[in-house]
Amino acid sequence: MPTASALHYATECFEGLKCYRGYDGRLRLFRPDRNCERMLNSARRISLPDFEPKELQKLIEALVSVDGEKWLPKSKPGTFLYVRPTMIGTEPGISVRKPHEAVLYIVALQFPVLDEPQTAPIYNPSPSGHVKTGRPGMKLLASRDDMVRAWPGGFGSAKVGANYGPSFNAQAEAKERGYDQVLWLLGRQNEVTEAGASNFFVIWKTREGVTQLVTAPLSDGIILDGVTRGSVLELARRRLSRPTEGVDALQVLERKFNMDELPEAVEEGRMVEAFAAGTAFFVSPVSHIHYRGKNLDIPMSKGTSGVYASFFKDWLRAIMYGKERHEWGFVVEEHSDRT
Fold first, then answer.
1. CA-to-CA distance for 239 and 316, rounded, in angstroms?
2. Buried b (16+ CB within 10 A) or exposed e, 18-38
3. Cα-atom radius of gyration of the chain, to the nearest Å?
4. Average pLDDT in the 63-89 region?
5. In angstroms, how far is CA 179 from the centroid of its own chain?
């Protein structure tokens, strides 16, 4: 319908999660209840109808229980399928009002692995802020003053289409200059918010020698409450509260921090590592950030990753693919197993 509310007034929200074929042959979803609850919050933010999150999860389970074997055969453990529940306002008409009709549907599709190290060199001149490095890892371009992804009181915390389309020009510019994503800054203090559509983390040492994991807070409604983000924070608090396997314990902080703190940490040798985290990019180590004339090389102690990012990836993958029995790994009974 050309006059559908979603096409004119952006009454559209969605979720992103993955279905995993475990090494034990079983299908799993990773914390699907979190995605379903977040989608309800997104729907409410743009005046779409309420629904029961548990019922949405049942629909997701039904889809992957039937189609899982086709796209994720048991002969290919360690693979995944991307699942996207979507709700759109479908009421026809161009009146500026809350839509009274909506459609909820779910699509599943194959998706590339985006967290693997990128090693191809990019031969653009660095003085103009282009990348000239063959180092693996994600490369970020800090956003300009005239571009903002989200703001206090807006809808940055909701997974709605209107959060993404306006950022495509900045993302395209970053790609043209050899970067993978935009590191989004906010306000005169250049608060660090997100990396592309992923949550952003830094690990550094304070001048007093305390090793900290820092990410932006959820308090202002700017940051998406990422499922991977929350899982990284929980794992850090549970498993890295004391020295582990030869690495320092982490003090975990959700706080505002500004971009000027990063070059200070790099120049003073206090930067340990940085990474982005989300469903699409999983846990992706960051190797380089360009910030208004400054090129920041971020350490990666393991060559293609920092040691902490490697811990988080290994722990999460073990849960997702059934190597570790955990409440976060939700097993789906397949249709073929019931017949």
1. 12
2. bbbbbeeebbbbbbbebbbbb
3. 21
4. 97
5. 17
Packed helices 227-239 and 32-45: angle between N→C axes, nearest 10 degrees: 130
Return the half-sphere exposure (C-beta side, CA atoms, 13 A cut-off) of residue 216: 29
Q: What is the DSSP secondary-structure string of 2-61?
A: TT-HHHHH--EEE--EEEEE-TTS-EEEESHHHHHHHHHHHHHHTTPPP--HHHHHHHHH
Q: Which residues of 103-142 are buried (b: 16+ CB within 10 A; e: fewer)?
A: ebebebeeeeebbeebeeeeeeeeeebbbebebbbbbbbb
Instruction: Give, for 157, the enclosing helix (H) or strand (E).
Output: none
C-alpha torsion angle, residues 274, 276, 281, 283 (rounded to 10): 60
Residue-wise pLDDT tens digits, 192-251: 999 999 999 999 999 999 999 999 999 999 999 999 999 999 999 999 999 998 899 999
Higher-scoring residue by pLDDT: 292, 265: 265
Of 319, 335, 263, whose CA–CA distance to 69 is shortest? 335
SS3 content of the chain, % helix, strand, coil (to 5): 30, 25, 45
Q: Cα separation of 277 and 226, whole Å?
A: 8
Q: Which position has the token pair 């699942």?
A: 83
For residue 64, give the 3-state DSSP assignment.
helix
Lookup: tokens for 39: 């989608």
Contact 173, 290 (CB under 8 A): no
Provide the whole-model pTM. 0.94
Question: 3-class SS at 116?
Answer: coil
**pLDDT tens digits, one per residue of 42-52:** 999 999 999 99
- Cα dihedral 145, 148, 151, 157, rounded to 10, equals -150
pLDDT of 92 higher than 80: yes
